[in-house]
Amino acid sequence: MAVDHDGALDSPHDQAHIALTYSDGGAIGRFRVRIFLIDSNGVRDVSNCIEGAVADFKARHDCKPRGNNVSALKWVRGSLLILTEVYPTGDCGPESGHLEGYLVSIPQGKILEHMTLN
After folding, report:
1. What is the pLDDT of residues 72-112, one digit of tens each?
2. Could you state, in order of their start, the residue ranges of all structural domains in the chain?
3. 42: region left, alpha or beta (phi > 0 left; psi from -120 to 50 alpha)
4. Global pTM value
5. DSSP symbol at 40
6. Cα(117)–Cα(88) distance, rounded to whole angstroms?
7. Of 41, 63, 83, 96, which has the highest C-beta tally within 10 A?
């Protein structure tokens, strides 16, 4: 879980950000992320705002039998750093275990930075 907030939510402009990584497939995956914004109006699910980054990764790296993993790592000045990964299993071929990072603005969904190991 990654949490970003400045304390109490006592003004209309205060916000907290929460990102939860969960697996519906066990220890090696299928990891997914849910993202919530909390403010004076309540809780909003903005999980779809990382879809652009996930699609960008999938366009170049994809495990056809299983799909890919995505995990929330940390908040950076109100934006979320996520990690995308090809499943680390033999049926994913030579891409197995390939990782890339994305810094994504929340809730706008803009890719601010794309990070690779190369």
Report:
1. 999 998 899 999 999 888 899 999 999 999 999 999 999 99
2. 13-115
3. left
4. 0.87
5. T
6. 16
7. 63
